[in-house]
Design brief:
Blueprint lengths: L2 H16 L15 E4 L6 E4 L1 H7 L2 E4 L1 E16 L5 E4 L5 E6 L6 E2 L4 E6 L1 H32 L5 H27 L4 H13 L6 H4 L3 E5 L4 E6 L6 E2 L6 E4 L3 E9 L11 E6 L2 E13 L9 E9 L10 E19 L4 E3 L2 E9 L2 E6 L1 E6 L2 E6 L6 E5 L1 H13 L3
Antiparallel strand pairs: 1-2, 2-20, 3-23, 4-13, 4-17, 5-12, 6-8, 6-11, 7-10, 8-9, 10-12, 13-16, 14-15, 14-17, 15-16, 17-22, 18-19, 19-20, 21-22
Length: about 400
């Protein structure tokens, strides 16, 4: 080998011994700011105490908490059928007035519309006639009882008058029941009887039997459907209004077969929907279905949910979270903000030594309130960044992209 080649080799060897292009970057002096580094195969961010304070870096320990298994079931909202009523006219007639509209809040017994119905007048007339016959038959029956006691009437005649009285009483009860089904309260029927009793001989039954039928709301609620206008002829089969008490609403969810062991009536459920992603609505399970869908292999779970502020609407898609306290276990959790995504995987920043924060990949589980369950990656002995982790992530990515 020639002498000048030997010298070149010696110079190169000396240079490598002192540190070549791949030597580790020296630490930034404490107090000079922040530096993102990659010593070896690890990823670290080094911060001065001043910068940590400025960026709001707070460290703490992952804590153990008792967390229950939570079933998350997809579903849809529906009207509470126990507090919903379809309203129609019990008799044919013609609408002469409408007293409410779509979206109105109504009270039980409130007049929704008035229908002019000749059949209603006929029903009241028949009732008053039946009452007159009942009074007459009662007098005959009372007289028959006195005559029978005095042995002035044979048994056969007494039994005939007794049967007539029972028949008249039955007819009267049926016609009174009809008036109740048309919406008349007992006080209104008593008022009709009083007017009939005090009327003069010149007053006809037609004058007492008003044909205007008032359709009342059977519940407190909001009008969510209307299909009627003034002047329209109506029949009993047509639904004119739907009223529903929306203070509670049903959540109808789909559970899988293997979820059934964790479900039971009365269990609490938290409902979330896309319209209010940061809010949950509390309810309880009312009923577990009895039949598994043979195609989807799911079973219906129905819950009643408190609809605070009437924010929830029927037919909204929702997800219901049902906690199973029987499966509670101790798990490690960190605040939600402590978990950051670095290079596509969830990570936390662990304080390795004074001012040095290392990236630690973790496997995360379900949320536990405002905290996140850590399945793998931490054992609870580490000191982790619980606030300000986003700033560390930004500095790490900045250092990586900047080629530091």
């Amino acid at each position: 080998m020639k002498p000048y080649l030997i010298c070149a080799v010696l110079i190169l060897a000396t240079s490598c011994a002192r540190g070549g292009p791949n030597h580790e970057e020296e630490e930034t002096p404490r107090g000079k700011g922040a530096t993102a580094t990659r010593p070896g195969n690890s990823r670290e961010v080094r911060l001065s105490a001043e910068t940590q304070k400025k960026w709001g870096i707070v460290v703490g320990r992952a804590t153990k908490e008792s967390v229950s298994t939570t079933l998350t079931l997809p579903g849809v909202l529906a009207l509470n059928q126990a507090r919903t009523a379809h309203i129609s006219s019990p008799l044919e007639g013609k609408v002469i007035s409408v007293g409410t509209d779509l979206g109105d809040q109504v009270k039980k017994g409130q007049v929704l519309l008035v229908v002019h119905s000749p059949a209603f007048a006929q029903a009241k007339t028949a009732f008053l006639q039946a009452r007159a016959r009942l009074n007459l038959n009662r007098q005959e029956y009372d007289r028959a009882k006195r005559l029978l006691k005095d042995q002035a009437l044979d048994q056969k005649e007494y039994l005939r008058r007794e049967a007539e009285h029972e028949s008249a009483a039955t007819e009267y009860a049926v016609l009174e029941s009809n008036l109740h089904s048309f919406g008349l309260a007992q006080g209104q029927i008593d008022e009709l009887i009083r007017r009939y009793t005090q009327s003069s001989n010149d007053t006809t039954l037609d004058e007492l039997a008003d044909p205007n039928l008032k359709i009342l709301s059977p519940i407190d609620g909001r009008i969510i459907f209307r299909d009627v206008i003034v002047g329209e002829p109506v029949k009993p089969e047509k639904i004119l209004f739907t009223a529903s008490d929306l203070s509670t609403i049903w959540a109808v969810m789909d559970a899988r077969e293997n979820d059934l062991a964790h479900l039971s009536p009365g269990r609490s459920v938290a409902i979330r929907c896309q319209a209010y992603p940061d809010r949950s609505f509390q309810g309880r399970v009312l009923q577990i279905g009895d039949v598994v869908d043979e195609k989807l292999r799911t079973i219906k779970v129905r819950a009643e949910v408190s609809n605070v502020g009437l924010l929830l609407k029927p037919n909204m898609y929702i997800r219901g979270a049902i906690a199973d306290s029987a499966t509670a276990s101790q798990v490690l959790t960190v605040p939600e903000d402590a978990v950051q995504t670095v290079e596509g995987e969830p990570t936390v920043f662990v304080l390795e030594r004074d001012g040095v924060f290392a990236v630690r990949p973790v496997e995360v589980g379900e949320r536990a309130g405002s905290r996140r369950v850590i399945i793998r990656g931490l054992d609870g002995s580490e000191t982790v960044v619980v606030a300000g982790a986003f700033n560390l992530k930004a500095e790490l990515l900045k250092g990586t992209l900047g080629g530091e």
